[in-house]
Amino acid sequence: MGGRSVARTQYGRKEPAMSSSAEHVPAPHVTPHRPAGEQVRQQGIQPIASVDELAFPGVWESDEELDEFLADLYASRRASMP
Predict the structure, then answer these.
(1) Which end of the chain is more exposed for a tag (fewer CB within 10 A), N or C?
(2) The whole model's pTM is what?
(3) DSSP code of residue 8
């Protein structure tokens, strides 16, 4: 058969034979798992001392603009619920 190895299946079909010594093909680039604590130490991240650090003044021009945003946000969340 032209040098190709062929095997018969249990149903008599011919299929290419498979080698039991095939090389392992590595997975695409995958970053190894690192615990969160280790990543925090490496990046020098510190916990926030106060919720005031999360405040960003001037995001909303008015209370009405904030209310409109929140209404739209809540509506979109309700719409995506089953």
Answers:
(1) C
(2) 0.36
(3) E
